[in-house]
Specification:
709 residues, 6-stranded mixed β-sheet, globular
Length: 709
């Protein structure tokens, strides 16, 4: 008999730990639980993780052996930096002669401010010769005597010659402290930025190691056989062993979990994801089916940490209303949660009897223009959620829904003060709050050049209904609230793929160099548990910075997803025509695989060459690829190398910017191999051959090529 297999995602928040079980075959949510986060338990947050897991298994009726995938996300690293709860770092700078000057300047990293008035506890010692054990021991004893609890070794150009850093750590190992080499955190040049990233990583290392050990032992004791994974800040997961080495990758992983849920569950191609909680809204971008990632700013300084590009606005479902001059002055940033007040829309009609509008300062130092209700049942906050319910913006059955008549009662005193009706008052509240969010959404749409006609707004989080529906109505963009929006983060953890990013600065990178970086990324995710047959690798070569970047993703098991509903041919054609902005009769099928269909049309423009825009749709009707002007060819794995060489030769451009190979994507089985980040024909063909190497000669391949301007 086939056992019921599940994927488990656990999101450790500041107040609650949420856990979900997702069916491994259908990816449907089958159960969810919520337990208090156990910050003060002797086992810390590990206790809450295990408690949530046990309750989840009981609700589903599964045993530990039925768990195919187990991952958790945590805010612990983020909170440690925000609260300044870090370990003192001993920085061992290496160098002699002119090289010693730059490393000795690294002592200034102790000026990094964690919180107002609190700086990073850093103790510096210099090592002239890494091959001198006595000198290394003297430096280690200098920083440990000053209080260092974790060590970092850093040397100029260690990304090319790591021997010095490794030699120092080999001697320092006898002191029994957690250690890291700067070259192990990033392989990018820039001594100060590389060391700063390594030092911040080290500062949270002891705390994260302790938590990892507790979680690992607790999960093992529960009988779980699935390897435990941890959410990364770029939307993927990593092994627990990798987290022990680079805990900094968990910083900002909270927003990453939510957007991962939107990407996998909502199957968004291009759009903006808004995760709205009680106090704030995190805004991130999905472009061409991928999350937008950039190097993060940590402690006010740039770093080499690749993290989700998330922009936070201080408006959420619990944001309170402020009045001035007879109108709504603003909404937030203070929320009902922080003020310790209940939402008025969740009160009973009796509680709201004799309600009067009064102005207060929610906390000491806050402006005195926040308005609340003083009523028979006490004091209640008027929030964005109250306004959304009163205006009918909250769908029935939504996590934030309340009784409509209660919402109207809650807004009535505000409407009277504004000399309007309840609907008018609710509209003004939502306008004021959403305006702040819209400013940021407009900016990310512009920054990432999203097509406003095809981009969608997807709302997640418990407060999604307070922001997303009104924002969609205000902007004219298509918008929807994600399924199970209140648990979108643990769903994202459960559905996330193993991910690894390898970056190298290689001037004049050859085919062998590029393939080497690609294979290193692939090997890294396989080593962390990804099934070799399910790994995808995206390679980008930046000729301006000589950076070769490979991002590998893969599932820990070969997914056999069997969705109950697939779009039929007419639905697919309709979606393609809408995306192409043309009549369905002018759209034709250019190619197809079992997983994807390629649609195209012909656009004739005055005084310009005809264009052939292309859309690639998956079987669910989601646009997975936009191409403004593409050439499409169908072949087989055996014939592909020769055909691709000819196609690339024909579509390579020559100009003032140099020689530029076309943007190439290959449709292979269920995957779209994205090779568009490579600009030179030789490496591009080499990468294409590497994607084809493990497949049978008669397997069909569809190539989509875009000429670069």
């Amino acid at each position: 008999m086939t056992r019921h297999r599940i994927r488990v995602g656990i999101d450790v928040g500041g107040t609650f730990t949420d856990a979900v079980a997702v069916d491994s075959a259908t990816l449907a949510l089958v159960a969810q639980v919520k337990v208090p986060t156990t910050h003060h338990h002797p086992d810390g947050v590990a206790h809450g993780i295990v408690a949530a897991l046990n309750r989840l298994l009981e609700d589903v009726g599964c045993v530990p052996e039925d768990v195919a995938f187990l991952a958790h996300g945590t805010t612990q690293a983020t909170n440690a930096l925000l609260e300044g709860d870090v370990a003192p770092v001993g920085l061992l700078g290496i160098g002699t002669g002119p090289g010693a000057v730059s490393t000795k300047r690294l002592a200034a990293l102790g000026n990094l401010e964690l919180t107002p008035g609190k700086r990073l506890p850093l103790h510096y010692a210099h090592v002239r010769d890494p091959d001198d054990p006595a000198g290394v021991r003297a430096a280690v004893e200098q920083v440990t005597a000053a209080g260092a609890e974790v060590l970092v070794a850093s040397e100029p150009f260690s990304v090319d010659l790591p021997d010095g850093e490794q030699a120092v750590l080999a001697v320092a190992g006898s002191y029994g402290l957690p250690m890291t080499a700067a070259n192990e955190i990033t392989s990018l040049y820039g001594l100060r930025k590389r060391t700063r990233t390594a030092v911040v990583n080290a500062a949270i290392l002891p705390k994260m190691l302790a938590t990892a050990d507790l979680v690992d032992s607790s999960i093992a004791a529960s009988g779980m056989t699935a390897p435990l994974m941890v959410m990364r800040c770029d939307g993927g997961v990593m092994s627990l062993e990798e987290m022990r080495r680079r805990p900094l990758l968990t910083v900002l992983s909270g927003p990453a979990a939510g957007v991962a849920g939107a990407l996998m569950q909502e199957r968004v191609s291009d759009g903006v994801f808004l995760e709205t909680g009680g106090t704030s809204t995190d805004i991130s971008v999905i472009r061409r089916g991928k999350v937008a990632v950039r190097h993060a700013t940590i402690l006010g300084k740039s770093s080499y940490l690749s993290a989700l590009d998330v922009r936070t606005v201080g408006v959420g479902g619990g944001s309170m209303v402020r009045l001035a001059g007879g109108g709504v002055r603003a909404v937030g940033p203070r929320s009902a949660h922080i003020a310790g007040l209940p939402y008025a829309c969740y009160a009973t009609p009796g509680d709201l009897r004799d309600a009067k509008l009064v102005a207060i300062s929610p906390l000491d130092g806050d402006p005195g223009d926040y308005v609340v209700l003083e009523a028979a049942g006490g004091r209640f906050a008027i929030t964005m959620t109250c306004a959304a319910n009163a205006l009918g913006r909250v769908p029935e059955g939504d996590f934030a829904a309340c009784e409509p008549e209660v919402a109207h009662t809650a807004l009535a005193p505000l409407a009277e003060a504004l000399d309007t009706d309840v609907a008018g008052a609710a509209m003004r509240v939502l306008d004021a709050g959403v305006k702040q969010v819209q400013t940021v959404v407009d900016a990310v749409v512009r920054d990432y050049r999203l097509d406003r006609d095809t981009a969608v707004l997807v709302g997640g989080g418990g407060g999604a209904a307070a922001v997303t529906p009104h924002l969609a109505a205000s902007t004219g963009l298509t918008g929807r609230i994600a399924k199970h929006n209140e648990v979108i983060s643990p769903v994202g953890v459960a559905l996330a793929l193993v991910r690894e990013q390898i970056e190298r600065i290689i001037p004049g990178a050859t085919q062998e160099h590029i393939l080497g970086v690609r294979n290193e990324a692939e090997a890294a995710v396989v080593a962390q548990g990804a099934a070799p047959g399910a790994v995808e690798v995206e390679v980008t070569v930046d000729p301006q910075t000589s950076t070769v970047r490979a991002i590998a993703t893969g599932a820990t098991e070969l997914r056999t997803q069997d969705r109950a509903r697939r779009a039929d041919d007419s639905e697919l054609l309709s979606v393609a025509a809408a995306s192409l902005k043309t009549d369905p009769q002018k759209v034709e099928v250019l190619a197809a695989t079992d997983a994807h269909t390629v649609y195209g049309t012909l656009q004739r423009r005055r005084f310009r060459k005809p264009h052939h825009p292309v859309r690639v749709l998956d079987a669910d009707g989601v646009v997975r690829l936009h191409a403004a002007n593409a050439r499409v060819a169908t072949t087989t794995v055996g014939q592909a190398p020769e055909l691709l060489a000819e196609l690339i030769r024909e579509t390579t451009t020559y100009g003032d910017g140099g020689v530029r190979a076309p943007s190439l994507r290959l449709l292979l089985g269920s995957r779209i191999a994205d090779l568009s980040g490579v600009l030179e024909a030789g490496p591009l063909l080499a990468l294409a051959r590497s994607e084809l190497r493990s497949r049978t000669a008669d397997e069909p391949v569809v190539a989509v090529l875009e000429v670069r301007s």
